[in-house]
Amino acid sequence: MEHGEGDSPPAAEKKGAVEEDDFGYRLFPDRNKKPQSFLVRSLFTFHNRCQVMLRMTLETNPYAQLLLEAMKQSGCTVFNDRHFSCENCDGCVSGGFDAATSQIVLCQNNIRQQSHMNRVVTHELIHAFDHCRAHVDWFKNVKHLACSEIRAANLSGDCTLINEIARFKFGLKRHHQTCVRDRAVRSILAVRKVSKETAEKAVDEVFDACFNDLEPFGRIPHSKADARRAYRDFQNRDRYNANL
């Protein structure tokens, strides 16, 4: 399970402790429960709100629209009912990508604003895009996980100036890179029982290559306006190639 946006990831495994890694599934308890009927789920305000916000994101958010189009062109068409699931989660996470089922989990009890939903869906769709285009070993290769977490933090809007100010984190010189690195490490620690040193080493070893991998955006989208321009450019790629 690949961790989405969260504020307080659990501590890493203590030295000397022997404990089987659950790959972060403890943060998503509804993953192991029998699915509720549509009628039962429809009675819960959290679930209804989550579904409404999800539809709004998929229909209007340029980050999500670009990623959905890119995945479709890569042969991995995303379907709302199949590939998204609104569930209750641990209090420290907002979403996750379940590589075992190719499904994005949205934490209906923790996502309360449309802007937050936009960011979480984008973050998880980047993981889904990486899962589609590459042979990512999510469960055994921490460098693969680190690379996707770097890309998700870099391209999803997680580290915009506005979001960092809201977290009371300030800085000018290379602040974006610092934010991306920190959030990638935090995400790894949330879903893998590894030490902080191991997570930081994995992030450091792949940082330059993965930070500079801007597919499918072609640029770092620091705002919705940037994302709209990236989406237009992506759509025009095929038109250019078709005329060659």
Automatic annotation (TrEMBL):
One of its GO terms (molecular function) is metal ion binding. It holds the Pfam family Peptidase_M76. Its EC number is 3.4.24.-. One of its GO terms (biological process) is mitochondrial protein processing. One of its GO terms (cellular component) is mitochondrion. Keywords: Hydrolase, Metal-binding, Metalloprotease, Protease. PANTHER family: MITOCHONDRIAL INNER MEMBRANE PROTEASE (PTHR21711), MITOCHONDRIAL INNER MEMBRANE PROTEASE ATP23 HOMOLOG (PTHR21711:SF0). Belongs to the peptidase M76 family. This is Mitochondrial inner membrane protease ATP23.
